[in-house]
Design a protein that fits this description.
This is Large ribosomal subunit protein bL35. This protein has 67 residues and is an alpha+beta fold. 28% of the residues lie in helices and 15% in strands. The protein has three helices and three strands, in the order αββαβα. It has helices at residues 8-13, 38-43, 55-61; strands spanning 14-16, 22-25, 47-49. A hairpin with a 5-residue loop joins strand 1 (14-16) and strand 2 (22-25). The two termini are 22 Å apart.
Length: 67
């Protein structure tokens, strides 16, 4: 039986909080920022939580996280 491994892409993008929720960074903030308004870019700052419908996919990618 092979070892269960965490997806490297998932461990770089997600962090599990003590309460069991998963935090993630905001999308649409990396490039092509000149056409986005200052208000839009400001609202994309910070972190947000992963939606509960996506938690099954995150749990499969991070089996050792205890989700």
């Amino acid at each position: 039986m092979p070892k269960m491994k965490t997806k490297s892409s998932a461990k770089k993008r997600f962090r599990v909080r003590p309460g069991g929720t998963v935090k993630r960074g905001q999308a649409f903030k990396r490039h092509i920022l000149t056409k986005k308004t200052t208000k839009n870019k400001r609202q994309l700052r910070g972190i947000t939580t992963v939606h509960e419908r996506d938690m099954n996919a995150i749990a499969q990618m991070m089996p050792m996280a205890g989700l």
